[in-house]
Predict the 3D structure of the following.
Amino acid sequence: MQQIKKMIIPLFMVLINATAYSQPNTLYKTIVHLDSIFFNAYNNCNLETQDSLYSDSIEFYHDQGGLTTSKKDILAATKMNICGKVTRELVKGSIEVYPIKDYGAVEMGFHKFHNKMEKNAKPKASRFIIIWQNKNEKWIMSRVISLH
């Protein structure tokens, strides 16, 4: 009986650990997918998709532009300053995702912005942080921090 316990306990621990890691992996894939949807819309000036992924109570912190709390203002600024002028490139492999209990997740990573208006400008990697809220099974961005 002792031999069986010695074999079952480690197997049980492996199963518990596998279950614990499967959720973050699913969460990671979900957030990476949402990131790609949002920034594909960003790069192609699809303001409707961007609007659907921003919370109505969005807080957008930009190290150079300050705090914006109006989704309407963020979308207007995107239309005026980004559409057809700037594209975003994710730094491959840079995304980290962490769950936030009973709320959603935090995404952190690096990206580069290509300015089409300044052909010789070299894009630099900059950090971003996005707080994703899972509200009624719909993921939305509630906080964004963009650092350059």
Observations:
- DSSP finds three helices and seven strands in the chain.
- The chain has a mean pLDDT of 88.
- Residues 2-43 form the longest helix (42 residues).
